[in-house]
User: What shape does this take?
Amino acid sequence: MDYLKELNPAQRAAVENTEGPSMVIAGAGSGKTRVLTYRIAHLINKGADPFTILALTFTNKAAREMKERISLLIGGTEARNIWMGTFHSIFARILRIESEKLNYPSNFSIYDTTDSKNLIKAIIKEMGLDDKMYKPGYVLNRISSAKNSLISAKAYAQHPEITADDETSGRPKMALIYREYNLRLFKSSAMDFDDLLYKTNVLLRDFPETLHKYQHKFKYIMVDEYQDTNFSQYLIVKKLAALNENLCVVGDDAQSIYGFRGANIENILNFKKDYPDYGLYKLEQNYRSTKNIVAAANSIIAKNRNQIEKKVWTDNGSGELIRVVRSLSDNDEGLFVSNDIFSNQAETGDAYRDYAILYRTNSQSRAMEEGLRKLNIPYRIYGGQSFYQRKEIKDILAYYRLTANPHDEESFKRVVNYPARGIGKTTLEKMAVAADAAKVSLWSVITENLDSLPVNAGTRKKLDEFAVMIKSFRAEAEKTDAASAAEHIAKSAGLLRELYADKSPEGLSRYENVQELLGGIREFAENEENTADGEKPKLADFLVDVALLTDADQEDGDDNKVNLMTIHASKGLEFGHVYIVGLEENLFPSQLSLSERSELEEERRLFYVALTRAEKRAVLSYAMSRYRYGQLNHCEPSRFIEEIEPDFLDMPELRSARPHRERFDSFDETPWGGGSSPFGKSGYTRNTSPQKSEPRRPTPAPPTSGGKQLKRVTQARTQGAPDADTGSSSADIVTGARVEHAKFGKGKVLNVEGEKATVFFPSVGQKQLLLKFAKLKVLA
DNA sequence: TTAGTTCGGGTTTTT
DNA sequence: CCCGAACTAA
Assistant: This one.
């Protein structure tokens, strides 16, 4: 029991009180994972059977890491038997066991978001609805929210408020789409992500003996990241825990960032209603970050209204102030951050893997990547387009899925004519009509009713050949292991040949990706953990989990690389040095969150999460202009920067000058700084400014004191590659010069300020252009 | 039926 | 700017 000594009193209480309901409120960096792992280890040490422990985590990766840590604590291989995983993967597993109760085969497919959207798209088309009104993404969101609130298609159609909503928004057919969508999923023997939870609820509701079975089985239940659970998940947990009530939920309301996906903070706030005699444990000591970071984070989260009272504190040193830096553009931001990592790394000797760049949206990674590449800094991007989302991977997996479950409509449609075998749109439409009329799957149409399909003999033959091929794959997959079957199918279907033929760089990378997938399957097949009764796993076994894997679940490797990811993806991680980039209004907080207080608060929690990832150093960065839809936009610094107690910030540039005597706000009409604006001690410039709620920030101050920031930016630029070829050197572009622009035609330069020029074009009027991007040709 | 091209529309976050 | 979808030519 030595390990108990490694815990502080609060942690230890949470670990030792294993009986009865308890809630652990764990501040950022307070050793939440430690508590969970020690608690489970403790249970096992006290004699609990690992098979009776259910631990629900947010990601597969979290589950895997926790298992490893538990193994280290208790030794042996027992940890392997704990039921630990994400809600989705654990209940998919249970649903496969109990599938026949729900009239599903155990090898049902799992549709990912893309599959779901495609299906909805097809339905909307078949119903002859306007796809501008009924956007697949919107429709899926709506259905998803319904499912996560356990509202069936029938209940949806009868719900007065919901239908009224749909009516007024001009989408009266929503309920019908929902019904048809479910029907089609069922016909395909498929479930979408939300079904995995929804159907589990149905199972536990309609089959009391099954509920009892699992209530008895799971004597101890633990839920990580409880603040991110939705109603559907909440109810599953409540039902399963009802018998023993040995339920321990762990979370932090301040880190709830999945509200958009139906997560419900109320679950945390309401815990005491369901379990009045619960034990409450607050972990408030932060072991991760410096005092400055903890205090800054506290000051930010204090702006939120709804929260459980707690005070996170730390014994760690004060550390550096949090630096705030500004760049001219998104590209400059990339250069600055890379440069700063480069010099800081050289100075501290810390490993590259100790650095993270966090952003709000995936699209921001590009500018960062470019900067890092220029300095030859190794980096790794998490998320973005997940490996499993890539077209070539989805294609090959569709073959595997179809092999395991030929009724899978989305997989069928994806591969029936890939590689091209002359089965085109027209044929597919006829098949869809036939399938709908007979209320069967597309597969049934070509295997059972092919003769009645109104197509010519040639097409019929092609369809039959396709069916024969898939059947042969099924036979192959039955008798050999996953790796051999996977390779056989990839080859026989003509996929590998197709990809190999493409010698373009993208084609090459697609081929490599497929090889990587095959390698992964080989590894899976050789892994002893997956062998059952001395037999190597089958292809179907590989497919069970693959739909639920995401990029974040891929092996980390020991690569020493700078980490790039969205803030969402960074949850639960920590890094010595954290750069939070793109801190601009409308980006972070996102434009879409500004209308509602609750959503703005979620953005703020997101910022809190980002900041609390940092151990010793945090840098906040924003740019003054950024490309969006290929267009340059002016940006304002994020309100979150202002919301931090200034005592914890090192923010020279907000008090000092912008580079040169630049004046970005175009209200100022004076061409070039004749009066050289005396540090806009408000009053001068405020006239036209369309003030928002916030007071206007004091405009630029003396050029001289801006040295620090200025130097960084320019240095970044010079250290990067020499200016991209703009046709003519930017030196020629001076005030008064006549220039030509590809789009706007001829114009006259009114003003040049550093990177930026104001040019007048007779065609479109006055334009602000960044010299680096606008390929201006200087006319004699 | 397919391949190649233009066109229009879209970026929040993910199991 | 980048992608997919619709459109157009073989």
Observations:
- The CA atoms of residues 422 and 462 of chain A lie 7 Å apart.
